[in-house]
DNA sequence: TCGTGCTGTTAGTATATCGGTCACAACAGA
DNA sequence: TCTGTTGTGACCGATATACTAACAGCACGA
């Protein structure tokens, strides 16, 4: 992470480019005047004053009212706390309102048989966790890649298993099975190596008899792998797919 | 909190106005097509597609690849978690870098005798907490207004007192003193009502023998009160001011 | 006392992002 | 085949913001 990237990150947290640059420069300086700041970063001296005023209003720096004015940034840890807690409180209000109005518009169209798609590994993982959370009866989680049995997933699996749900991890890859604690409540089900359900499947998740998620990783897009998943719950589709998947997996209870 | 405010809040969390409107509309709908969304919110139908794509990339909605395409937002709680954790990780990187480069530029100018000013009540409160955290020996915190003895401040006072620091709250206002638990480690020191140190003082904080913060509330600016504070630490100024303040306060140990 | 350089403020320009409109081809159902 | 809807892309204009320039105090020294 270099300075430019840091400035960009700070703008994503709500600062303007000038504010971010001034703040970073002041961190490097410890304390400094507008001229000091303008010297070591690409902000015109005359613009430092306005940016600093804004930063002061956000609680990110203190001001020494002398001539010349001297600025003193709060510590990075302090700044992180303040910025994030400001954003959190903004978020609390907004999402509270959303929870209120949720589903407030009638939607005559009955969208049954829905199959939803998700892009991005983190997003897929979050949906997996969501679906596991809703399990009543049993869960089957399969992947040939150890990195796709994330800690968070394993945690909710364990949690569900502790709550009485039959939870199993299946794989043809020993390293995946080994990452599940042997003495824990989550079962492991090895698969024969020649029995690949789908060639490029990244994850399979079955929950109860009517919920399924399946993902693939396409190496094509951009630099890094792009995981794409689809899922369905409470639909006939899902039920059929779950049954199908079960047949492909040797599930010795 | 109405819809417009919510949209604004979401933009502060990094969404564009269109993205925010689409997301809010989908919460109200449950699920919906681009046309559904365009109907109940001020986003041209043609622009819904792009906004939804972006929201999908952020993990805020799933997509049903049918014709017409149907969108399904994640729950508000889920969305809040994802947005904030995205921002947090952005922040972690940035502030990690800042902690590295901190003070990396030599600053020959010795800025001793610094007195720093702070604007905004929350910012003042944070600095108060910061200074209390650094106490070794004793803390005196005075205010005539019960709302300026915030819970967070009382908490760190108690924490410090538990750690062996002599912590005292002084006030001429009984309601302030009553908000300090009588059986707790923080002492209370009543002041005679006629003994106002400074007419409009909002807070006084003394830490050890060389740190002081003092704030006033000016009713002039804008609609709400604007608290302004100054503080100094480790300076001769501070030492003198601490001594001065002590004389104005009847500190019977 | 009169420069000279620095400080802080303000007006002003340029540009890029984003909100908003329009046109159109692909598609589905009648 | 006709018609309304869908999804895509080009286009425009306004606003925010990065950036420039000019200038009036103030400090300090010749």
TrEMBL record, chains A, B:
SUPFAM superfamilies named among the record's database cross-references: Winged helix' DNA-binding domain (SSF46785)
Transmembrane segments: none
Domain Transcription regulator TrmB N-terminal per the UniProt entry, residue ranges: 10-77
Pfam families found in the cross-reference section: TrmB
Name this protein carries in UniProt: TrmB family transcriptional regulator
Species this chain originates from: Halapricum hydrolyticum
């Amino acid at each position: 992470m270099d300075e430019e990237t840091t400035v960009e990150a700070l703008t994503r947290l709500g600062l303007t480019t000038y504010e971010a640059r001034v703040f970073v420069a002041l961190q490097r300086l410890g304390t400094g005047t507008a001229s000091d700041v303008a010297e070591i970063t690409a902000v015109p001296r005359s613009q430092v004053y306005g940016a600093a005023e804004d930063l002061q209003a956000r609680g990110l720096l203190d001001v020494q009212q002398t001539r010349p004015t001297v600025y003193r940034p709060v510590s990075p840890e302090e700044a992180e706390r303040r910025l994030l807690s400001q954003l959190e409180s903004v978020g609390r209000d907004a999402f509270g309102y959303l929870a209120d109005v949720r589903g407030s518009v009638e939607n005559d169209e009955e969208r049954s048989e829905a199959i939803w798609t998700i892009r991005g590994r983190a997003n897929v993982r979050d949906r997996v966790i969501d679906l596991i959370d809703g399990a009543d009866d049993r869960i089957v989680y399969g992947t040939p890649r150890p990195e796709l049995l994330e800690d968070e997933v394993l945690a909710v699996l364990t949690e569900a298993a502790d709550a009485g749900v039959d939870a199993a991890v299946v794989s043809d890859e020993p390293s995946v099975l080994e990452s599940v604690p042997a003495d824990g409540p989550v079962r492991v089900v090895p698969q024969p190596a020649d029995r690949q359900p789908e060639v490029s499947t990244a994850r399979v998740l079955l929950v109860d008899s009517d919920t399924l998620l399946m993902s693939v990783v396409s190496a094509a897009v951009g630099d890094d792998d792009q995981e794409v998943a689809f899922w369905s719950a409470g639909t006939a589709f899902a039920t059929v797919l779950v049954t199908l998947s079960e047949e492909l997996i040797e599930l010795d209870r």
